[in-house]
Amino acid sequence: MKNKLIILIFIFGLFSALSAQTRLITKTGHVWFYSHAPIEDIEAHSHQVAAIILTAKGTIAVMIPVMSFEFKKTLMQEHFNENYMQSAKYPKATFTGGINNLSEINVSRNGIYKTTVEGDLTIHNVTNHVKVAGTVEVKDGKYFIKTKFKVLLKDYNIVVESRFVNNISPTIDINVDLDF
Length: 180
What we know:
Distance between the termini: 43 Å
Largest sheet: 8 strands, antiparallel, barrel
Low-confidence stretches: 3-20
CATH architecture: Beta Barrel
Structural class: alpha+beta
Strand order of the largest sheet: 1-2-3-5-6-7-8-9
Oligomer: single chain
CATH class: Mainly Beta
Number of helices: 2
Order of helices and strands: HEEEEHEEEEE
Mean pLDDT: 89
């Protein structure tokens, strides 16, 4: 009986602590990437990006189903998922980290605030620590987070066959728009 009471007190305390934090959630974030190479440009978009921010600590987690990226050419999408990203084996890309200066953002005042986001980016089952600049826009109680950064394919063990090196850039531009 005493153990049950202790467990109930612990659970009540846990739920109280969690409810004190504001959680911002989106399931329709937009991430797209762009590759410029001598033979062709490649661009793909995903609107199935899920993200959560715990405002008390400024932590953020983002998850993208790799197969959700859509290309103009079906064959590019097929090659992306099968040959490069191996989407069946590595079905998601994730980021977990923090918004460095979230406490400096005035949530009650509309405006655009510069920030940096730092944490672990996992693509193709390889994790690298990244730090990127971005903005948080506050508009009528809503949050809009935007960032642009580059990734090197080799940093995530994504190999381009030598016959396609003029088709795919070794550096990919990543754009992120999250509306909470």
